[in-house]
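User: For a benchmark we're assembling, each entry needs the component sequences followed by a predicted structure for the full assembly. Here are entry 17's components. Please fill in the structure.
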Amino acid sequence: MHDKTIAQLGAGLAAGEFSSEELVRAFLERIARHNPQLNAFITVTAEPALAQARVADQHRQRGDAGPLTGVPIAHKDIFCTSGVRTSCGSRILDRFIAPYDATVVEKLAAAGAVMLGKTNMDEFAMGSSNETSFYGPVRNPWDLEAVPGGSSGGSAVAVAARLAPGATGTDTGGSIRQPAALCGVTGIKPTYGRVSRWGMIAYASSLDQGGPMARTAEDCALLLGAMAGFDPRDSTSVDRPVPDYVAALDRPWDGLKIGLPKEYFGEGLDGEVARVVEKAIDEYRKLGANVIEVSLPNSQLAIPAYYVIAPAECSSNLARFDGVRYGHRCENPKDLLDLYTRSRAEGFGAEVKRRILVGTFALSAGYYDAYYLKAQQIRRLISDDFRRAFEQVDVIAGPTSPTVAFNLGEKVDDPITMYLSDIYTIAVNLAGLPGLSLPVGFVGQRPVGLQLIGNYFAEDRLLNVAHRYQQATDWHRRTPAAFA
Amino acid sequence: MPLGPAEVAKIAHLARLAIREQDAPAYARNLSAILDLVAQMNAVDTAGVVPMAHPLDMAQRLRADEVAEPDQRERFQAIAPRTEAGLYLVPKVIE
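Assistant: Structure for entry 17:
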């Protein structure tokens, strides 16, 4: 059962081949067997999962079942889950039991999906290797010496190692797409505002966006359809109908135009990754797409602008962790300032502290214009680049990450090198566009991802373009041998 | 723009983060490297470019000024480090 996609599991449940309880038990057994090695889950919610599964089976018996009823999934530990620890990968929230469900959690539960547990992640979603987690690094099932990417590394590994058929992730600068690429799974970051941020612990609020990770574009379509939609509790949620993503999968292309940004194929891109990506583009040509070159001239400015905007927003968002109302509090504070500074120093890890400090500096008196305002102007230039490119093409394609998964420990002491891992994904968040990563091959035994970028609210188009490729190829069906 | 340990201490105070003195030089090095990276922005003339604060250029949605949430004080305080009689306890602020 564990090697089936969500669509296949839904069909199996509908045909009565197995019950949700049997299915959930099978995945819980796999988690118990493999998680000690992979560390993909921070918390496993076995008993509530079985209870949810039995309810799903009852619903199905009454004829009240949708495509996700009884299907097990995992949630990134950034989404609040009522009564269940929600750690965000941080010591400061190690004992935080969320008092409510995030909208995404609520919506997937309402669609009948069963939560298996909460997945590991970089602390507060700040990282590209899952090594900043308080709960320790996650290992890549394709090669246990390799990182899974981050920050949604636990979700990517849960799907890749078949510990869950699908999972939620969040993406502020590439945190769905980069781990999806490095673990050989499919993940989509929707347009900013498409999926509610309510109950999703904030990192950089103008960039954060939740989305699904699964084996196939079809499964992502099923999950995204349940996750997306207007939420009055999120002030930046967009009030716009959610299209039928599944129905869009097989839509004909009618001369689809794919743009290759020349800046994404230059210096910094690993030669073998480039060859795999070019082969995938050739496959698209065979499928009838019209491929042309486009230019995103300000691409190299995305990382500099991001490392002002994201830290600035993070320094403001993370000010709420003060040791007073919830989260870690230091022992014997001598006064209120000591309580704040020591609780935060003990609760946050090194990368989170670095970003809080950078953001605090960028927003401090005398530096605001030179850093924050300048970065927002660059953000406009980057967004304008995409606007012009989408006047010529329907979809932009290129590598998701400049290299395959790197080794554990390789970049952990060098933040700048680590940041470059997101060089092709960050601009998409700055512009607020949707982006998808799908597996298109390997270098050695480590997977390569192709990134597809769409115009605003073109998630249906991205899923359609990824699905058609997956109909013609089998990269998305490959399973790491030790977890088959 | 290189930052020294003294500047790191000042920023850490603004951020309400205790940084041990022996860690300050390493933070200073990392922060200076990040600010060097960020300085690439200065190569671009952005005179007249309207800053983009939000990806969708949308107006902030407002709601009616009405009570929408029920009182859940007990639930919320159940996860607090220290409370008493419905209040959050912190060290004495006023002598």
